Amino acid sequence: MKKSIATILSGILITLFSGCEGKNFNLPSLEMPDLNIPAFDLSKKSLDRNLPRVENVKIMSSLSQVALEWKPIRDRQIVGYRILRNDGKGGFKLIQVISDPYVSHYTDENLNQSVYNRYLVSAYTSDGRVSLPTPINVPQTNKKIEAVPFVTAVSGLPNRIKILWRIHPDLRVSAYVIQKADASSKKWETIATVDKRLSVEYIDNAVKPGISYNYRISAKTADGVFSKPSKVVMGTSKLLPAPIIGVMATTNLAKKIDIIWKESDAVDKAAYRVYASDFADGLYSLIAKTKATHYTDRFDQDGATRFYRITVVDADGLESTKQIKPTRGRTLGYLKAPNITAAKIVNNTVELKWSQTDPRTVSYTIYKKYWDGWQAKKIKIVNFKGSTFIDNKIKPDITYTYYVIGVDKNGIVSEQSRSVNLKVEGMAKKSSWF
């Protein structure tokens, strides 16, 4: 009975292959029924049913590779082998021609075995004849890689988000692929591949303070097979401290500017930073660090103007943003110059009068200049109170120059008044008014 069945099947195969040159045909088989092999090009190769077939085919497979092994045909007509694989559309495609009859192995890589899982192997001769193909099915013994079972994101860290996951139970896993997307976007970007199955952590430093990001992880095997992505988790880095408010700067102090501001409400504040510039829209430089809510900026000159911005830094080194509008400070400026109202010589005595023009003035400095022969003389009279100066230390035929400077309680001086010139002609009594 068995012999009769074998005879019948042989007859069916011979009938199917006879007269089908250049056509698509079906190859019934007890192992793989209804095989459609349109890629077996018989317009260039003629089928010879008398050629020895490839026998004793063995299969080894992994998640992405299939290895075929067969017994080499010891027939001098055979010069190599042709290997076809199903194309996922109901037919077969030639994927390899081996031009050495002694070769007995072939490995097909980067496969999706749920689609590509059937092969045909035949021998061929130098004159274009091909043996009947031997069909091979790839056994579905390898389970797919499951998704990473647990993933979480640790938020609230400074300038970073920490991703943790559970070790994948599948021993074939060799690495994890980390993907990231903005919270408002579905565009995923691969940011890292973490080697070793026992690794369970990745820290993303490419984040902005207070911004949320989505993450997912895929497991990867050594031969390049990926699991489905894990569940999506969201992480957010630590917020920057809130900007400092209430910044004020003085404009009425001598040779210094006091800056004050409201205390930051950051619970982990570490210090404040004071930035200054000579121009409102200029480059601001760090001039001080302090834990107090005030700072004194000192100057050597009067009438100095500066602009300030204040920030707070927390215990993790995160710094708040600067104020959009800077705060202007100024030291006390120069006084207004006194106004000389009269200058005359009475009874060989100089009488000089002026009026106060700045309410800050508390005293005056009077300057007297003249030539004594070939020597230039300059006399300075300081801390003078009042607004009339009498000078009887004068000589005839000498021109004297006078001017006055006001001084405030801080020692800040005014510009000098206008200069007046007086001269005694011999011993005559003359007066001059200005």
CATH-defined fold name of the largest domain: Immunoglobulin-like
CATH class of the largest domain: Mainly Beta
The dominant shape is rod-shaped
Question: Averaged pLDDT, please?
Answer: 86
Q: What is the distance, rounded to the nearest whole angstrom, between the alpha carbons of the first and last residues?
A: 149 Å
State the CATH architecture of the largest domain.
Sandwich
Q: Which strand order does the major sheet show?
A: 7-6-9-11
| Helix fraction by DSSP (H/I, runs of at least 4) | under 10%
Compute the number of helices: 1
Give the number of DSSP strands.
Answer: 32
Main pleated-sheet profile: 4 strands, antiparallel
Within CATH, the superfamily of the largest domain carries the name: Immunoglobulins
The gyration radius over C-alpha positions equals: 50 Å
> How many distinct domains?
4
How would you describe what is shown here?
It is a single chain. It contains one helix and 32 strands. The chain is mainly β and 434 residues long. The protein has four domains: 2-137, Immunoglobulins (Immunoglobulin-like, Sandwich); 151-236, Immunoglobulins (Immunoglobulin-like); 248-330, Immunoglobulin-like, CATH 2.60.40.10; 339-423, Sandwich (Immunoglobulin-like), CATH 2.60.40.10. It starts with a helix and ends in an 11-residue tail after the last strand.
